[in-house]
């Protein structure tokens, strides 16, 4: 089997789960060729080797792209015109967005031509963005089937997700990270029969479960992620403010960077919470792990954004549970499939008071911590996850 992995960029700091998959596939003796849409300006510490070996679609090679399209127009006119039909009939609501999908067909032709030369037998994309558009059309033209790992729900109306129903329909298999995703996307296009829950993989040896420790006073709270709306960090700040008014002491750190960083910083300043809630900025993976092991609880306050965008299952949640650190999460997307009564604490999303109540009532529970680690080892162990993926790819 000649396997291609295709995504926007393998160096994106938050794409640790993709890099783990690639390395484990190779460890188990399977070759994986890497193709990216464009190179990210931010490259994670553990990604340089993968970024350097990736073949990128952009910037466009005009001559090679033109010749690839002429080749398929002549040699596979039925396939090529089917691609045009998929692009122009996609339910995107505007001619501009349909033309954008048509453009994806044209630029995908160069990848398809290379896949044919290299006898690629399976194409796997991560995310339902432009990556899966390219994979869908490259699959159509090269005859190599494609599958997609679907991470986040709520993408039905997002501006960066085009031809959604077509991608679901044309994929050979859909690897959903949660049952929630299967239910959500089956409403977009019936796809239960080709969908399977396959979690994001964790290298369990990298997350040694810490010894049980009683909570500090004040309680040390950690949150990690990009400063975007769906992370819900503003509700954590509001919860900390509620507890401050109740006379409950907290020590909160939110690690990360992103477009809403300054908004959260301004919120903290307005509430005069600078001594309680700190924003150290982006941290390398080693520092995140160190701070996680020193925290009393990791909070994942995810929410559905105003545009409908949702989380998948946040990586920080899996890492905390694997490390033996208690978690508080929200009843959002696939999170309740991990954070249950016996593995953590779950609160409603966008409810700062409920989050404050959970933090005030927090007690470290060894039985929950042990159960959480066991759940991650059972469902997210990278060796098991890669075996699940291979079985699907080889089918």
Question: What do you see in this structure?
Answer:
With 395 residues, the protein is of the alpha/beta class. It has 15 helices and 13 strands. The chain has helices spanning 16-27, 48-53, 62-75, 77-89, 95-117, 130-142, 164-170, 179-188, 233-246, 261-270, 285-294, 315-322, 352-360, 366-380, 382-394, and strands spanning 3-7, 32-36, 55-56, 122-126, 146-150, 173-176, 195-197, 219-224, 250-255, 277-281, 297-300, 327-330, 345-347. Helix 3 (62-75) crosses helix 4 and helix 9 crosses helix 13 (352-360). The longest helix is centred in the first third of the chain and has 23 residues, at 95-117.
Helix-strand pattern, N to C?
EHEHEHHHEHEHEHEEHEHEHEHEEHHH
Biggest sheet features: 7 strands, parallel
CATH class of the largest domain: Alpha Beta
The chain-level structural class is alpha/beta
Distance between the termini: 11 Å
Strands of the widest sheet, in order across it, are 3-2-1-4-5-6-7
Mean pLDDT: 95
Q: What kind of oligomer do you see? A: single chain
Rg from Cα: 22 Å
Number of helices: 15
């Amino acid at each position: 089997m000649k396997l291609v992995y295709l995504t926007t960029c393998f160096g994106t700091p938050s794409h640790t789960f993709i890099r783990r998959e690639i390395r484990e596939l190779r460890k188990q003796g399977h070759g994986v060729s890497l193709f990216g849409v464009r190179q990210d300006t931010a490259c994670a510490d553990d990604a340089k080797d993968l970024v350097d070996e990736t073949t990128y679609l952009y910037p466009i090679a005009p001559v090679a792209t033109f010749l690839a399209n002429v080749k398929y127009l002549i040699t596979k006119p039925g396939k090529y015109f089917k691609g045009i039909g998929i692009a122009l009939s996609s339910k995107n609501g505007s001619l501009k967005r349909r033309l954008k999908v048509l453009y994806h067909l044209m630029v995908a032709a160069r990848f398809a031509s290379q896949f044919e030369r290299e006898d690629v037998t399976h194409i796997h994309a991560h995310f339902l963005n432009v990556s899966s558009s390219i994979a869908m059309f490259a699959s159509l033209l090269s005859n190599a089937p494609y599958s997609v790992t679907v991470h986040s729900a709520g993408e039905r109306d997002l501006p960066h997700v085009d031809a959604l129903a077509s991608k679901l329909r044309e994929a050979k298999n859909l690897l959903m990270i949660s049952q929630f995703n299967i239910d959500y996307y089956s409403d977009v296009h019936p796809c239960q029969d080709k969908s399977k829950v396959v979690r994001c993989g964790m290298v369990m040896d990298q997350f040694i479960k810490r010894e049980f420790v009683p909570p500090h006073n004040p309680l040390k709270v950690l949150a990690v992620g990009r400063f975007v709306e769906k992370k819900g960090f503003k509700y954590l700040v509001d919860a900390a403010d509620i507890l401050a008014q109740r006379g409950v002491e907290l020590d909160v750190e939110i690690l990360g960077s992103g477009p809403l960083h300054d908004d959260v910083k301004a919120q903290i300043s307005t509430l005069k919470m600078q001594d309680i809630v700190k924003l150290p900025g982006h941290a390398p993976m080693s520092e995140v792990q160190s701070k996680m092991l020193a925290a009393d609880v990791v909070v994942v306050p995810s929410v559905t954004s105003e545009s409908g965008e949702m989380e998948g299952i946040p990586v920080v949640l899996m890492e905390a549970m694997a490390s033996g650190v208690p978690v508080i999460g929200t009843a959002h997307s696939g999170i309740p499939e991990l954070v249950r009564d016996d593995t953590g604490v779950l609160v409603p999303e966008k409810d700062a008071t409920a989050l404050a109540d959970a933090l005030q009532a927090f007690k470290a529970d060894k039985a929950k911590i042990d159960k959480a680690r066991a759940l991650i080892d059972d469902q997210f162990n990278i060796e098991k996850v890669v075996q699940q993926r291979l079985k699907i790819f080889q089918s």
